[in-house]
Amino acid sequence: MTRYIFITGGVVSSLGKGLGSAALGALLQARGYKVRLCKLDPYLNVDPGTMSPFQHGEVYVTDDGAETDLDLGHYERFTGVPARKNDNITTGQVYTEVLAKERRGDYLGATIQVIPHITNEIKDFIMEKEGTADFVLCEIGGTVGDIESLPFLEAIRQFGNEVGHDRALFIHVTLLPYIPAAGELKTKPTQHSVKELMSYGIRPQILLCRADRPIDDDERRKIALFCNIDEEKVIPALDVSSIYEVPLSYHAEGLDHQVMDVFGIKDIANLDLSIWERIVRRIKEPEGEVKIAIVGKYTNLADSYKSLNEALIHGGIANKVKVKLKFIEAETLEEEGTDSLNGVHGILVPGGFGKRGTEGKIAAVKYARERKIPYFGICLGMQMAIIEAARNLCGIDDATSSELEERGSHVVGLMTEWETDAGKEQRSEDGDLGGTMRLGAYPASLTKGSKLAEIYGSNDISERHRHRYEVNINYKQQLEEQGLIFSGLSPDGELPEIVERDDHPWFIGVQYHPELKSKPFEPHPLFVSFIEAAVAQSRLV
Ligand code: GLN
Question: For residues 145 and 423, what is the distance between their CA atoms, to the nearest angstrom?
């Protein structure tokens, strides 16, 4: 029997609903249950793929090639369950689907309305998970009270009635703001938010109350009374120093116990959370520190590089060091030179799109290559390493990417066709931008004996991609003569996937996004190795 847990948010956005859902998923797993997490997003974009990272943070890519909300990254990092395309749906997708059915004549003359057609489509999305897990955790994006989320709230209300209240639980995440003048946490916004939710016919059984300091018993009692909730089901969700502490902190506050209680499941005596305890210990008691520079262009919004930041922390956990991130806006390297890179133990150029900042990224590659500082280029960061070597070592002065310049020697160019399991995919210059990149998991074959094969401990790998341009394989020999070795290719030998230098302590560029698959309990080997190299570098300086 599958049980459903719906997680809504109130008062303000950015309360960490996604993290909360992921942490609850991890706690249910620790109780031996199979979990699945999904997210309903109220915005109108079909997927977040066309949104700027400044707008919506990172786009998380699944193995099956969907561009999804970054919360799916949290789900995967906390539970290890690979996210799938049908774990995320947006209003845009729901309408696209319903309108396509209307055009096909599937509704047989009916007037198409939000209720029941849109809500049915949403319910189908949730119901499709039936039987795939013991618990399906379904997060509703946005904040209760937003116009956009109404159809989703209506759909989950109906869904709860249909599956029965012994199989559906509603958790509401709220904020208790601290007012310094009054010297207390305020419960009124929570009361109003619950009232609003109740006006849609949803009665939350558990409240997760975010606060920056302990919530005293009086406040808890007050919330319970006004919100019609058992006192022990008003769970404090206090700020913690590391996100990996959240499962432990929620467990200590009784969240998973209360979930069991709502469903009438007998509780087990002891929960083994040693994995999380070990991770938190490693984070809190590092034996050293390394400084990594991230040279990008979305550097003033931490969420833009969410998975990357986490994967670097995971690399630190494996090496027992704290990883200090220094975000450097690529454009400043163009204007002010590379002084800001002095003293860092590793340089990483992450994925990105468009021309802005690329000359700064190329300067960062040159700095890392010449001074033998560990360099990790991811996607655009690999393409920058290619352009740098082509210009500065092969003497191709006008080397560039066709994404950046129409003219010049395109050592990186538009990928016009590639092999998939289903046959050849083709693209042209003037095609749609949405959902048309080379997306999702693709295999790569590594050269035996290469540094990469050694790091992975295998010659065959599968990693997630999200790119439209590729390194031009025709330059392979010229670049290899200058020490930039193509040590990983697509199995058909057509697409360069990895480059490494043979005259450098750690210089690797990958066309894919290894950060998407790293987990705190299973750090990605490339990040483990990169941080290891940074530790070695830190001992030199
Ligand atoms: N803009 C580059 C491309 O499309 C790199 C993409 C990325 O870094 N994800 O190929």
Answer: 46
- pTM of this structure: 0.93
What's the number of domains the chain is made of?
2
170 and 244 within one domain:
yes
Alpha carbons 469 and 453: distance in angstroms, whole number: 24
In ligand 1, the atom with minimum distance to the C-alpha of 513 is 9
Give percent of the chain with pLDDT exceeding 90.
84
Pocket of ligand 1, candidates 58, 59, 383: which has the most ligand atoms within 8 Å of its Cβ, to mutate?
383
Residues 406, 510: one domain?
Answer: yes
Whether 262 and 409 map to the same domain: the answer is no
Measured from the CA of 352, which atom of ligand 1 is nearest? 8
Final residue of a structural domain among 279, 298, 332: 279
Per-residue pLDDT reduced to its tens digit, 400-455: 999 999 999 999 998 877 778 878 777 777 777 777 788 999 999 999 999 999 99
Gap from CA of 380 to ligand 1 centroid (Å)? 5
Are both 511 and 433 inside the same structural domain? yes
Question: Is pLDDT of 269 > 80?
Answer: no
Catalytic residue among 251, 513, 524, 532: 513
Ligand 1 atom with the smallest distance to the CA of 469 is 10
Q: Are residues 169 and 117 in the same domain?
A: yes
309 and 443, same structural domain? yes
Same domain (yes/no): 218, 315: no
Q: Of 279, 306, 329, which closes a domain?
A: 279
Indicate which CATH number applies to the domain containing 470.
3.40.50.880
Q: Are residues 153 and 184 in the same domain?
A: yes
Please report the pLDDT score of residue 55 as a whole number: 73
Place of tokens 């310094």: 180
Question: Does the pLDDT of residue 193 top 70, yes or no?
Answer: yes
Tell me the angle at which helices 150-163 and 119-127 cross, rounded to the nearest 10 degrees.
50
CB within 8 Å of 240: residues ≥ 6 apart: 246, 249
Domain that includes residue 476, residue range: 287-538
| Active-site annotation holds for 165 | no
Question: Ligand 1 pocket: which residues have CB below 6 Å?
Answer: 351-353, 379-380, 403, 466-469
* Phi, then psi, of 54 in degrees rounded to 5: -65, -30
What's residue 429's pLDDT?
A: 75
CA distance 346 to 363: 14
| SS3 call for 12 | coil
Residue 500 is a catalytic residue: no
> What spacing in Å lies between the alpha carbon of 481 and ligand 1's midpoint?
26
Average pLDDT, the chain: 93
Residue 388 among the catalytic residues: no
Question: Could you report the per-residue pLDDT of 81-123, keeping only the tens digit for each?
Answer: 999 999 999 999 999 999 999 999 999 889 999 999 999 999 9
DSSP E strand stretches across 389-506 = 399-401, 409-414, 417-420, 423-426, 438-446, 460-467, 469-471, 484-489, 496-501
Q: Find the 468 Cα to ligand 1 centroid distance in Å.
A: 6
